[in-house]
Amino acid sequence: MRRAMSVLVVIVVVMGLAGCDAVQRKFTRKSKTVKAPRIYQIRKYDIKPSADLYSKHYAYWQSWQSELIQDLGQNHKKDKRCIEEILMQLGAMQNILVREKADELGKHIARLEDVRDTITKQEIDKFNRSGTLMVLEREDRYIKTGFPVSKIKNYIRESFDEGPQAQAELPHAGAAAAAQEEK
User: What is the CATH number for 125?
Assistant: First the structure.
């Protein structure tokens, strides 16, 4: 009886394993299918300077500036990230403006780069926090009064091709062409 019972148990186990779909799937070879690569059609977007684009960068600058003023000296990594984002947004704003206004904004960017140097070289403690905070608040006021979106609409340039760098290179290119014509 015992022998018959063990044979019966073995048969049930073998039938259970042989009939189990999961086990069969595990031991059957899967066919390899080659997926066709996706082809993306790349479009060149023509982004032009506009008041909306300036407004976006202005809002981002304002957010990062207020965060740095509010939390200066609490977290060194956060301070470094905030000042980098501030300078990046101001640089983007400067690229949207005509040369005269871009130069005005460049003065404020230079002062904030000095603040960046102070923040990156040393951690802000109570001794240099007040001076740095004064510079940040002063530049915040100057930029908010001198470069708001409502006042800047007349100073937005036509395209990025005529940016501050491109405008600075134009006189040199004209002088080089005139020198070649004289020869």
Answer: 1.20.120
Give the distance from CA 60 to its chain's centroid. 11
Q: Is residue 14 part of a domain?
A: no
- Any domain includes 126: yes
For the chain, what's the residue count? 183
CA distances 101 to 39, 66, 94, Å, are 43, 23, 8
* DSSP secondary structure, 7-74, as one string: HHHHHHHHHHHHH-HHHHHHHSPPPP-PPPPP-PPP--------HHHHHHHHHHHHHHHHHHHHHTTT
Strand partners, 97: 156
The tens digit of pLDDT for each residue in 136-178 reads: 999 999 999 999 999 998 999 988 876 454 444 333 333 333 3
How far, in Å, CA of 45 to CA of 162, rounded?
A: 18
The 8-class DSSP code of residue 154 comes to G
Is 176 domain-assigned? no
Residue 117 belongs to a domain: yes
Q: Is the pTM of this model over 0.70?
A: no
Measured distance CA(97)–CA(78) in Å, rounded = 29
Give residue 77's domain range.
Answer: 51-157
